[in-house]
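step 4 of 6: structure.
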Amino acid sequence: MTTSAATARSGDVLRRSADWARRAPLLPALIFTIVVTQLPFVVTLIVSFMDWNAYYPDERGFTGLTNYKRVLTDVNMRDAILTTVLLTVTVVLVSLFLGLVIALLLDRKFIGRGAVRTMMITPFLVVPVAAALLWKHALFNPEYGLLNGMITAVWRLFGSDHPPQPDWISTMPLVSVETALIWQWTPFMMLILLAGLQGRPLDVIEAARIDGAGSWQIFRYMTFPHLRQYLELGALLGSIYIVQNFDAVFTITSGGLGTANLPYTIYQTFYQAHDYGRASAAGVVVVIGTIIIATFALRTVSSLFREETSR
Amino acid sequence: MTRSPAAQLVRTVVISAIVLWSLAPIGIGVATSLSTQADVQEIPAHWLPHHATLDAYRSLLGGTGDSRAGGTVSESGAFAHAMWNSASITLMSTLAILCVAISAGYAFARLRFPGRGALFWAIVATIVVPVFTVVIALFGLMADAHLIDRKLGLVLVFVSTTTPLAMWLVCNYVKGLPAEPEEAALIDGCTRWQAFWHVVLPQMRSGIAALSAIVVLSVWGEFLIPLLLTSTSASKPVTVLIPEYVGKYTTNYPLLAAAGVLALLPPAVVALVLNRHIRGMLSGSS
């Protein structure tokens, strides 16, 4: 028995080294990936426990949890968290909804469908920072922007010479930022949902129609459950990117008027206050918060859907 | 399916409205880039320029410091150089990301090795780590490595931030491929690497095309990281240069719009060429 165990073990060792020899060509990529993806966060974690301000380089050293205490009691940081959540949720939900409506409309056959689909993607191709500038200067501008130009035109039509010319960005700063982002993200959601719609089992839907199911019933009980995973994918990818949005806030409002979200606040702590320790602690808090929220949200959403489909 | 003319009409109107909502802002951008500064600032606003002109493009690419630029100085050749920086950074990053993500994604999908699950989650979890939370660490690392204001530094950072998502997509994609052809090749005496190179890669062609499009789009549009890590024209990409055309007191709108239009072209070309594959990838990635 002992001998058989020993041979088995030596066989194991041999097999294992042979396994490693076979894997060897793929290892460098793996190691590189691990180092390159994990290193920044590990360093962030270390810096977050340090007193490190570029203005006082001599005082650099470890301070324990001081940075975390300051981050969690900072009013600006709490406002930024709230703004980030509000911005992300609004943009993701509205662009998912619009994307769904557009995808459903474009799923039917009509003349020029391919061309329309291609044109619809364009907003997503515009460089984000240029898109934000476009909205700020060409659309929201109170004097010669497209929005107020349209209001003037409509008012003229009804014979009024004094159309309202609101200053969009200063009266509704957060909505302005959200509008620009929704414009850019709707095509992305549409693409994902169109792909989902094309994977629908058409024969089953046809059978349901013959059995007398209405359009709404087909959407509610067949199309929607089928699209679930695509909606989730869109929401997930959208949230990941929009939580990080810096470009729109930076260009449209420069973080003023209550639109400073977390990326902008951390950028300021880093760039203006040069407080590396505190900015890193804020980053770690954000990551922990994101993981908690993402876990809960995904669990809630999927349990909701499970109830829907089991009904 | 038969539909009433009224329903048909409603649908046409709705679709036109949607197309308008998507394209009108871009149309205004293009119209602005073809206008003169005076034309743009006329009140009330009008849609099309009275005298279409390519002046904005000319001063952007040729460079001018004179009054035509409306106060904002466009250094000679600065824009063209930034476009070149963006293009070379995007190309290098995309190649590196594809190499790493495809081989690592394949390894995670098909090979069994100790710590595989933990490693996979450690890498994929970083998709959820927003880039802005690690910028300080990145800045420190780059400064220590003397990579501030160098293209190589940006490439490394983009590889770090984009590889996890790309690798995750590749891994899912490979798992969706049939394993039999590779296994047959392995039994026939191919090494793992040969099987990967000759059997698996050709099957992944359209997935790789879609992935390249996604990577090119996201790297080309990066703003925060290059804003922090670049300082001169040696490495400054076009995304960082464009906001600089916004002047403190006056802004040369045609110049700004022309810059935006030119920056849109490369990703638009990539997306048009790879359009078909992008849709395929998205439908297969869930």
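step 5 of 6: annotate
 - Chain A has two domains: 1-48, 67-310.
 - The domain at 67-310 of chain A is CATH 1.10.3720.10 (MetI-like fold).
step 6 of 6: archive
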